[in-house]
Amino acid sequence: MTDLGTWHKSSYSGGGDGNACVEIAHGPTRISVRGSRTTPASATLIFRTAVFAPFLDALKSRGLKMS
After folding, report:
1. By the 8 A CB rule, do 13 and 20 touch?
2. Cβ distance 38 to 44 under 8 Å?
3. Which alpha helices (H) appear in the chain, and where do they start and end?
4. Cα–Cα distance between 36 and 24 in angstroms, integer?
5. Burial class (CB in 10 A: 0-12, 13-18, 19+), 5
6. How far is the CA of 43 from the CAs of 15, 22, 28, 39, in angstroms?
7. pTM of the predicted model, to two decimals?
8. What does the DSSP 8-state code read for residue 40?
9. How crowded is residue 44: how many other Cβ atoms within 10 Å of its Cβ?
10. Which residues of the chain have pLDDT under 70?
11. Is the CB of residue 24 less than 8 Å from the CB of residue 31?
């Protein structure tokens, strides 16, 4: 598997060990997203950098909070 970079947890991870959150890894040409609640290696979404901001904007326009 390709190295996806260093994973960063959302500031909305919750208490405890923060295992119910979204993690993001930044690369020069892509943004990788995974949920740490499930098996992280089995469910990773990879977006081209140019489409990630419009994806977040679409989520925000639907009332979802982003950190």
Report:
1. yes
2. no
3. 49-61
4. 10
5. middle
6. 23, 11, 21, 7
7. 0.66
8. G
9. 15
10. 1-4, 12-20, 37-42, 64-67
11. yes
Please provide residue 41's backbone torsions phi and psi, each rounded to the nearest 5 degrees.
Answer: -70, -15
Per-residue pLDDT tens for 36-46?
A: 766 656 678 89
- CB within 8 Å of 30: residues ≥ 6 apart: 46, 47, 48, 49
Cβ–Cβ under 8 Å, residues 34 and 45: yes
Q: Which two tokens stand for residue 65?
A: 């909070």
Residues 6 or more apart from 47 whose CB is under 8 A from it? 30, 31, 32, 33, 55
Distance CA 16, CA 1 (A): 30
User: What is the percent of the chain where pLDDT is above 70?
Assistant: 66
